């Protein structure tokens, strides 16, 4: 069945061949036709094709569904007291992760599944139609497997993060933990995961440990992505580029060498402004990355410790206000950028042949995403079920 969405005040396609010819390919007074789950036509309303049925968007703007390439939805408990302490000056460290690991191990399967599904619904209401979901709060074979089973029920973009931190029972045996992650844990988790990730930072895993886990993951058929440069500068960003990781995430701290490596490689730099907001960390030098030609994505990093938001619109507002992205760059990073970070050519762009996957905003322009922070502008989401 064909559906024509008409009366679109401003249509963001992310296809430079459309409309104003910018990276966002903005078409004004637009229409968009869908056949089944696929876009069949986009353009100005006046030249729209006939369809079986039509939907009047009443001047709403339409944007591609947000693509959230970094989220930790499988956990139990919450850490609001830790957040409150940070707002009074206590610094963020990787140590808080152990609190969530303990709560997650204690929770039953239904609690974990309901918690993750609730956050996924929250994301969808806010316009996120594609999202990645990591394990990493189980940190044993049994609990990492069940975390990935929960994630797999929600998204195909599942990530094995057994190397999130060294769990307390391995504190004095970290080599043994790395062997466990790169061996039996990986073997048990690989069938449930598309990606392998490591938190390569102070208080987590060093670059040699990260390499061991990522290379083992690659040998098991997973594609690497990496947490690096969150708590301080280090060699993680260059390791990600060297291994051809799809994305390196956080990049709060970047050196000249990191920016050069990213510009020369294919790895997306995924920025997580919810983390800088919630941990009072310095803002990443996003302008420098963009000006060097690095592909930048924005993601929520939804997790109970460093960034408990499921709102991509909030992340866009922060990126514009505090990281120096233009509203157009921020929207691109939250849609096409996320799609690049997940290597998903089917989403992030509204063009014939792509997935019918978009959000209607109660606003005349996408500019309102940053201009009206905190306002739930998404009035409807269209995505294949
Ligand atoms: O991406 N940085 C490491 N992992 C998460 C935070 C985890 C937590 O504090 O619970 C992140 O920010
Ligand atoms: Fe993370």
Question: Top keywords for this entry?
Answer:
about 20% strand, globular, EC 3.5.2.7, about 375 residues, binds fe (iii) ion, nine-stranded parallel β-sheet, alpha/beta
Q: Would you write up a description of this structure?
A:
- The chain is α/β, with parallel strands linked by helices.
- Helix content is 35%, strand content 22%.
- The chain has helices at residues 80-87, 97-106, 109-125, 141-152, 174-189, 207-219, 236-242, 256-264, 273-279, 286-291, 312-322, 327-341, 368-371, and strands at 2-12, 26-35, 38-44, 53-56, 61-64, 66-68, 128-134, 157-163, 195-200, 223-224, 226-228, 247-250, 268-271, 296-298, 358-361, 378-382.
- Strands 6, 7, 8, 9, 10, 11, 12, 13 and 14 form a nine-stranded parallel β-sheet that branches. Strands 1, 2, 3, 4, 5, 15 and 16 form a seven-stranded mixed β-sheet that branches.
- Strand 2 and strand 3 (38-44) form a beta hairpin.
- Helix 3 packs parallel to helix 4.
- It is globular, with a radius of gyration of 21 Å.
- It starts with a strand and ends with a strand.
- The protein binds N-(iminomethyl)-L-glutamic acid (NIG) and fe (iii) ion.
- The site of N-(iminomethyl)-L-glutamic acid has 12 residues, from helix 2.
- It comes from Prauserella cavernicola.
- Belongs to the metallo-dependent hydrolases superfamily. HutI family.
How much of the sequence lies in strands comes to 15-25%
How much helix is in the residues? Answer: 25-40%
SSE ordering: EEEEEEHHHEHEHEHEEHEHEHHEHHEHE
Radius of gyration: 21 Å
Question: What overall form do the CA principal axes indicate?
Answer: globular
What is the first-to-last residue Cα distance? 15 Å
Question: What's the total helix number?
Answer: 13
Structural class: alpha/beta
The biggest beta sheet reads: 9 strands, parallel
Which small-molecule ligands are present, each listed once? N-(iminomethyl)-L-glutamic acid, fe (iii) ion
Uncertain runs are none
Please provide the count of β strands: 16
Query: Averaging pLDDT over every residue, what do you get?
Result: 98
């Amino acid at each position: 069945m064909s559906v024509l969405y008409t009366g679109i005040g401003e249509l963001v396609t992310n296809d430079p061949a459309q409309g104003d010819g910018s990276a966002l390919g903005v078409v004004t007074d637009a229409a968009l036709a869908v056949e089944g789950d696929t876009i069949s036509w986009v353009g100005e309303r006046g030249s729209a094709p006939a369809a079986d049925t039509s939907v009047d968007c009443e001047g709403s703007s339409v944007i591609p569904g947000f693509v959230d390439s970094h989220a930790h939805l499988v956990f139990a408990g919450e850490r609001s007291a830790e957040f409150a302490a940070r707002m009074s000056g206590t610094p963020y460290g990787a140590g808080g992760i152990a609190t969530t690991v303990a709560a997650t191990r204690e929770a039953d399967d239904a609690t974990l599944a309901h918690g993750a599904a609730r956050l996924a619904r929250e994301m969808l209401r806010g316009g996120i139609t594609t999202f990645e979901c990591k394990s990493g709060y189980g940190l044993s074979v049994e609990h990492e497997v069940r975390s990935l089973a929960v994630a797999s029920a929600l998204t195909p973009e599942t990530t094995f993060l057994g190397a999130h931190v060294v769990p307390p029972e391995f504190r004095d045996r970290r080599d043994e933990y790395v062997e466990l992650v790169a061996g039996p844990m990986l073997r048990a988790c690989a069938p449930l995961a598309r990606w392998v990730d490591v938190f390569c930072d102070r208080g987590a895993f060093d670059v040699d440990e990260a390499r061991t886990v990522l290379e083992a993951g690659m040998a098991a058929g997973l594609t690497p992505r990496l947490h690096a440069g969150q708590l301080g500068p280090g060699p993680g960003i260059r390791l990600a580029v060297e291994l051809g990781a799809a994305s390196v995430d956080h990049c709060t701290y970047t050196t000249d060498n990191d920016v050069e490596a990213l510009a020369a490689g294919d790895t997306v730099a995924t920025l997580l402004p919810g983390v800088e907001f919630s941990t009072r960390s310095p803002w990443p030098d996003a302008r420098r990355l963009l000006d060097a030609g690095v592909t930048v994505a924005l993601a929520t990093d939804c997790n109970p410790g460093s960034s408990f938001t499921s709102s991509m619109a909030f992340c866009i507002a922060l990126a514009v206000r505090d990281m120096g992205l233009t509203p157009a760059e921020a929207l691109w990073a939250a849609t096409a950028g996320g799609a690049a970070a997940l290597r998903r050519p089917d989403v992030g762009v509204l063009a014939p042949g792509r997935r019918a996957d978009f959000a209607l905003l109660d606003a005349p322009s996408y500019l309102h995403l940053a201009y009206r922070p905190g306002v739930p502008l998404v009035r409807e989401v269209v995505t294949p079920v």
